Amino acid sequence: MDTIIKIKVIIGSTRPNRFSEKPAHWIYEESQKREGVVAELLDLRDYAMPFFDQPMPPSMSGGKYANDVVQAWAGKIKDGDAFIIVTPEYNHGYPAVLKNALDSIFQEWNKKPVGFVSYGSAAGARSVEQLRQVVIELQMIPIRNAIHIPSDVYRIVMNEKLPVAPELFKSLREPVDRVQLFLNELIWLSSALKTMRNM
User: Fold this and answer.
1) Of 47, 48, 42, 51, whose CA–CA distance to 20 is shortest?
2) What is the three-class DSSP state of 35?
3) pLDDT at 199 over 90
């Protein structure tokens, strides 16, 4: 049985000069350090999907999608065992482009865990709370721990070039290592669910 855990890190914003790619690259690198994990960055800029316009809901599509970009996106998501969604908070919510990426497919998300890295107003906590409701409807399992980037880290990192030095995120490990708690939970649940999916 394949025991490698494939984590897909989704950059949930497509804005010019976005902040999201910086924590996305950082959490991608942190994931890659874990034994038995292969991580991949998925940038929504690379998947210019139309806003959902199909007559049949994705839950009834059988994994076949009319749009080639949506089909390519579905292939990447199907290949994943777990997901980390990096999201800003816009007006107490998350970006429309991210909602569309979630809504455009269905069974590829099922029975897989997801964790959130957020930033913005209230450190993105409200966008994460809304996303938890959405992913449950997609038959995903959101983990309890999330990484909410505080405003001081945001201000330090926002003007940095990629790759951002990991020590700029060190406050997320003090006094409790929230990064370790987050990845431990995500990887443990990924392994358990992958075993069950393969039975």
Assistant:
1) 42
2) coil
3) no
Delimit the domains of the chain by residue range.
5-197
The alpha-helical segments, DSSP class H, found in 58-175 are: 68-78, 96-103, 125-137, 151-157
List the structure tokens of 55: 């007559």
Number of residues that make up the chain: 199
Give the phi and the psi of residue 146 in degrees, each rounded to 5: -135, 160
Tokens standing for 85?
């969604």
For residues 128 and 5, give the distance between their C-alpha atoms in angstroms, rounded to a whole number: 23
- Per residue in 68-87, pLDDT tens? 999 999 999 999 999 999 99
Q: How far apart are CA 88 and CA 85, in angstroms?
A: 10
Task: State the Cα–Cα distance between residues 50 and 105, nearest whole angstrom.
Answer: 12
The matching CATH number, chosen from 3.40.50.360, 3.90.1150.10, 3.20.20.140, 3.30.70.120, for 5-197 is 3.40.50.360
Say if residues 102 and 137 touch (Cβ distance below 8 Å).
Answer: no
Residues ≥6 apart with Cβ < 8 Å to 175: none
CA distance 165 to 23: 11
